[in-house]
Write a structure and sequence with these properties.
The protein has 220 residues and is of the alpha+beta class. The chain is 30% helix and 8% strand. The C terminus is likely disordered.
Length: 220
């Protein structure tokens, strides 16, 4: 066998080994790239949904708490830069949330009902059009928000989310509603009434070694 043929054989083996290593690396990096793409879409959902909710709140302030009929109305009146699409779906269509739709009762940061005195996003007092009911899953069907006014949007993607948004871990339960806080991560736990926090004492109790009420003081 000639030296040139030997060299070409070694080069072919090295090329095949390189291709095999690249395939292994690509297969290992596949889940990581999928994670990055999903994370980017999730961040885009938070940004777009938040902008739409804020635009609705500004529209209500200027129009006597009336609700916009479509995203195009918000764009034409300069409350929204453009009619954003849902980044979590192929068709880009939002689920429009309308007055009377169930807004997941018990959700941390859910809009307070009228007369409760609660405040929403940016110190806004939720209007009477933002209501919560106990009807199960009475969401509007996907559409363009035309006709009856809408108070928020949500995606139709039902996958489990990477982040926790207002206590919810499914994208379809991420509701972007005007006047509603948007909390990312787990909500802080509220101590139970009467619970004793570390380093504190119950009313009427004393710390170890403290003099009892009415007891004579003794010099140390």
């Amino acid at each position: 066998m000639s030296p040139r043929r030997d060299e070409s054989g070694y080069a072919l083996v090295a090329l095949l080994a390189t291709v095999a290593i690249m395939l292994v690396l690509l297969s290992a990096a596949g889940p990581y790239w999928k994670y990055l793409i999903r994370n980017d879409r999730e961040e885009e959902l938070l940004a777009r949904g938040g902008e739409i909710a804020d635009a609705i709140a500004r529209y209500q302030r200027k129009n006597g708490n009336a609700l916009p009929s479509s995203l195009d109305v918000l764009v034409k009146q300069h409350f929204l830069r453009r009619p954003y699409k849902d980044p979590m779906t192929k068709d880009g269509k939002w689920r429009f949330l309308r007055p009377g739709d169930a807004l997941l009762p018990g959700m941390p940061g859910a809009p307070a009902q009228a007369g409760s005195g609660g405040t929403g996003l940016g110190g806004l007092t939720p209007t009477t059009t933002t209501t919560t009911t106990t009807r199960p899953s009475a969401f509007s069907q996907p559409g363009q928000g035309i006709g009856q006014g809408f108070q928020g949007v949500a995606t139709t993607n039902t996958d489990k989310s990477l982040r926790i948004f207002n206590g919810r871990t499914k994208y379809s339960e991420w509701l972007f509603v005007a006047g509603q806080p948007r909390l990312i991560g787990r909500a802080p736990t509220t101590p139970r009434p009467g619970a004793v926090q570390p380093g504190s004492t119950q009313p009427g109790s004393t710390q170890p070694g403290a003099p009892q009420p009415g007891a004579p003081l003794t010099p140390r």
